[in-house]
Amino acid sequence: MTEQDQDVLFGQEEGKTDENPIKEDQDTDSGSEVVARYKLSPLTLTVFENQNGFYNLQLQRTYPKDDDGNDFGYTNSIRPRDLRKAARLMEKAADDLQELEVKTPQ
User: Fold this and answer.
1) How many CB atoms lie within 10 A of CB 19?
2) Strand 72-75 relative to strand 33-40: parallel, antiparallel, unpaired?
3) What is the reported pTM?
4) What are the sequence ranges of the domains in the chain?
5) How would DSSP label each residue in the chain?
6) Which residue from 3, 34, 46, 39 is spatially nearest to 18, judged by alpha carbons?
7) Dist CA 98 CA 55 (whole Å)
8) pLDDT of residue 105
9) Separation of CA 79 from chain center
10) Which distant-in-sequence residues (6+ apart) come within 8 Å of 87 by Cβ?
11) What count of Cα atoms within 13 Å lies in the side-chain half-sphere of residue 94?
12) What is the pLDDT of residue 68?
């Protein structure tokens, strides 16, 4: 991974686009910053690095709030049919994070 945020997009279905649940370069209230974002519609896995150099992950699912598909919502709950997609996203993030010296709290 580079020092700049990166989006890894794969497996997008034709005619569908991923909505961004988190703005690019957005810092959270906890002082964490986005290191990478992996998308596989309708899921987004975001990797954060906090002030102490620890990494945390957040998995979100995008869903339409109305029948027109113009308004989207976000949830941390995933459906059983999204489990394989979630596993693919986590596997890719794990591979990329393994290349870094990842510190994890004991």
Assistant:
1) 15
2) unpaired
3) 0.66
4) 7-98
5) --SS--EEE--PPTT-----SS-TTPBPTTS-EEEEEEEETTEEEEEEE-TTSBEEEEEEEEEESSTTS-SEEEES---GGGHHHHHHHHHHHHHHHHTS--B---
6) 39
7) 11
8) 59
9) 16
10) none
11) 6
12) 83
